[in-house]
Design brief:
The protein contains 20 helices and 10 strands. The protein is an alpha/beta fold. The protein is globular and about 80 Å long.
Length: 498
């Protein structure tokens, strides 16, 4: 049975040393973005280019010829709303990097805030939960979702803090809307956390389980307002409720890669630790039901929710890491300091690996970007990316071609620009090629062939990224730039070629 962990009678305070250590850990969570000039999130360059087009608003002729941007209010706008004022102050690329640095800091801070609010001290739970901060969702660049997740953690802490206040319901109507606007999945996580908390509070009160269920569900009513637009948006978006091919196999692969980063067995070990440690805590009656029930519900939802939901991809995958996060956070144990340092070990190890990889690959990307000097403004660039089948490490080069849009106002084929799904779309003067037309799958040690690469038939330049050089190029292509894992070729369609 879950241990409810009643609030202590005496409210303690964080010492200056404890507060300093917590702030240091939160800052450390942003270390990959601090060290890497080019953030190595898979989708990040595509988001950066989309923001560039959004802010330009059709003023640049080349961009206006190729791209259209239509604002739609939805539950997926967190970073899109923040980037405009940040870019006005710092410039777009610096502003984007600030978001990459700040968002994991906020998620880490949210974990500490929740544990402190519930227990008035920091224990093993928050330190183990830190291992999920750099989840696959963050590594892929789901910035809106991660921002909403941070907001959900802080909002939940405020919900607990305001228990008994007559202003809590009125306060949480706008808070629920704000979290939903950042990302609807974060809003859903907040709703589950509040429901589980209210359910757990009634434990041992002699209330019939069905009545407990009713009361806990009804308590979440201040968060209900975005429910209708969420349903309407899901009905309108193309492929809004789709499990994809072989859903059971995909679900299993997502669970295996629940904390997928760079080193397979370290990621496996971390996942197992975050599953086993709460079971041990449950055995010793050290598992806090106010969080554990929500964690179990979210993990169950990850099995039920389809992969494609409301026009977004990997809706189920991102919930697995959140469930593990809350499950670890539910551990109610404050041991001696030596064991506390052990508990932070998984976070420190994963953070060190991610930071090192980002630093090295950022330097590689900086050299690759020299190819942009050879691309004229407004050019049509076919991007090809070799993706290795079965590779465990998160792919890093998938959307680097979008920098051609960002810096050269070029048309490229790896934007997220599907009509009815994304706010960014292509104009009739452009072409039909969007993500995933750039992806070329190959097994280990195999090269890819580009002689008949379809997007290149309508392009002036071909920009290739991959571990191995391609086996061939389109007829008439001339390589004008090459790095270890990339090349730029001028195609026969280019005016400068003739």
């Amino acid at each position: 049975m879950f241990h409810p962990t009643p609030a202590p009678a005496v409210v303690s305070r964080l010492s200056a040393l404890q507060l300093g250590l917590i702030l240091l850990v939160c800052v450390a969570a942003g270390l990959p973005g601090i060290l890497a000039h080019y953030p190595q999130m898979t989708d990040y360059p595509a988001h950066l280019a989309r923001w560039y087009i959004m802010i330009d608003n059709g003023h640049t002729p080349d961009l206006a010829r190729y791209y259209a941007f239509r604002w739609v209010w939805s539950g997926n706008l967190g970073a899109d709303l923040l980037i405009r004022p940040l870019a006005a102050v710092f410039g777009l690329e610096v502003a984007g990097r600030l978001l990459v640095i700040t968002i994991p800091m906020l998620v880490a801070g949210g974990l500490f805030t929740v544990e402190w609010t519930l227990r008035r001290r920091i224990g093993v739970g928050a330190l183990l939960a830190l291992a999920t901060v750099w989840s696959p969702a963050l590594l892929m660049g789901f910035l809106n979702f991660e921002l909403a997740l941070a907001g959900a953690l802080f909002a939940f802490a405020l919900w607990v803090r305001m228990a008994g206040s007559r202003w809590r319901e009125a306060t949480f109507v706008p808070i629920g809307i704000l979290v939903w606007v950042a990302h609807q999945s974060g809003w859903g996580v907040l709703g589950v956390m509040v429901f589980a908390y209210e359910w757990s509070r009634q434990g041992g009160s002699g209330v019939h389980p069905l009545m407990r269920l009713w009361r806990a569900g009804l308590a979440t009513w201040p968060l209900w307002l975005p429910f209708l637009p969420t349903v309407l948006a899901s009905q309108q978006a193309e492929g809004s409720f789709n499990y994809g091919k072989k859903p059971l196999l995909v679900k299993w692969s997502f669970w295996k890669g629940a904390l997928r980063d760079r080193v397979r067995y370290i990621d496996y070990a971390t996942t197992l630790l975050l599953l086993i440690a709460p079971l041990v805590a449950l055995w010793f009656r050290r598992l806090d039901g106010r969080l554990a029930i929500g964690a179990v519900l979210i993990l169950l939802l990850s099995l039920i929710v389809p992969r494609h939901l409301g026009g977004g991809d990997l809706a189920d995958l991102r919930l697995i890491a959140v469930g593990l996060m809350l499950l670890a956070l539910a551990i109610d144990w404050r041991p001696a300091w030596p064991l506390m340092w052990v508990a932070i070990g998984p976070f420190a190890l994963r953070l060190a690996i991610t930071s090192a990889v980002w630093t090295v690959h950022s330097a590689n990307v900086a050299y690759m970007m020299k190819a942009l000097d050879q691309i004229p403004r407004g050019a049509r660039v076919a991007v090809a990316v070799r993706e290795e089948v079965g590779l465990w490490a998160q792919p890093l080069y998938g959307h680097l071609g979008c920098y051609a849009t960002l810096r050269r106002d070029a048309l490229v084929n790896n934007h997220f620009a599907i009509p009815g799904v994304h706010m960014l779309t292509l104009t009739p003067a452009a072409w039909k090629w969007v993500d995933p037309s750039h992806r070329l799958y190959a097994r280990a040690h195999r090269t890819v062939k580009l002689a008949k690469f379809k997007p290149a038939m309508e392009a002036e330049y071909l920009w290739y990224f991959g571990k191995y050089a391609p086996a061939d190029l389109p007829p008439g292509a001339r390589v004008i730039f090459r790095s270890k894992h990339s090349l730029l070729a001028r195609l026969a369609n280019s005016p400068q070629h003739r």
